[in-house]
Structures are given as C-alpha cells and as structure tokens.
Amino acid sequence: MKYLCLIYGDEKQWARMPAAEMDSCIAHFAEFTTDVKTSANYVGSNRLQETAAARTVRVRDGRVSITDGPFAETKEQLGGYYLIEAGGMDEALAIAARIPGARWGCVEVRPVAEFP
Questions:
Q1: Is the C-alpha dihedral spanning 84, 85, 87, 88 positive or negative?
Q2: Residue 116 DSSP SS3
Q3: Contact of 6 with 110, CB cutoff 8 Å
Q4: What digits encode the pLDDT tens for the residues 50-87?
Q5: CA distances from 62 to 28, 65, 67 (A)
Q6: Count of CB atoms within 10 A of residue 76's CB?
Q7: Could you tell me how far CA 50 lies from the centroid of its own chain?
Q8: Which domains, ranges and CATH numbers included, belong to the chain?
Q9: CA dist., res. 4 & res. 23, Å (int)
C-alpha cells in the first residue's frame, strides 16, 4: 500500500536558520533520501517552494478565482513529501519517524486511496 508522508514545518524558522544549521538539515534529508531510495519503500519525493510561490484555485458557480498562497494560515506549512510503499500503517509510521523534518515539525502519514 502507498502512503504519502507530508512534511510540515515553520517556513520562518528556515529563513532564520544559520547557514551551518541549514547545511546540517539538508545533509540529514539527503542521508534519509539515499537510505529510503535503496529500500523497497521509495516511490517518490520532492521539496516544495515556499508558500509565497503557491496559488489557490477555486471554481464556484462556473467562475474561477485564483488567490495568492495557501488558503489557511497556519504555524506550520507543507514543505515537501515522500511517497512510500509499506506493508501497513505501522511500517509507514516507522519510516516517517526517520524523516528529519519530524524532529522540528511534523510528518502527516496518509494512506493513498488507489482505485482500480
């Protein structure tokens, strides 16, 4: 079964982070990514640009509305994801716990609804 591991963190914290600490975080993500890619669990992953680069699209009564950024204001923003394959939720949670972003933000693990 596939699981989407959504990584949330505070964008403002990243912007204030000293270069050495940023390099260390990036190295931890690179290490995890290399490790999970060598397993049978890896399907895909990407880092997302900041929310300032996002747009939200809505269609109401046939009219399209486009606004800047995400709709909800939150303390933590979606910063990236890993799409993994796991034997069940327990295995998916164990993999998600190894994602470096779980150390300072959170990782939401959601099963993918696959249709035939």
A1: positive
A2: coil
A3: yes
A4: 888 999 899 999 999 998 887 667 788 999 999 999 99
A5: 46, 10, 16
A6: 15
A7: 12
A8: 2-111 (3.30.70.1060)
A9: 25
> What is the spatial distance between Cα 46 and Cα 82, in angstroms, rounded to a whole number?
7
**E strand map for the chain:** 2-9, 42-47, 55-60, 63-68, 77-85, 106-111
Tokens of 111: 């099963």
Helices and strands per DSSP (H, E), number in the chain:
3, 6
In angstroms, rounded to a whole number, what is the distance separating the alpha carbons of residues 3 and 108? 10
Beta strands, E only, 48-93: 55-60, 63-68, 77-85
How far from chain centre, in Å, is Cα 96? 10
Measured CA to CA, the distance from residue 28 to residue 80 in angstroms comes to: 14
- With tokens 């910063």, the residue in question is 79
Give pLDDT, residue 49.
Answer: 92
Q: Are 3 and 84 in contact (CB under 8 A)?
A: yes
Q: What is the pLDDT of residue 98?
A: 97
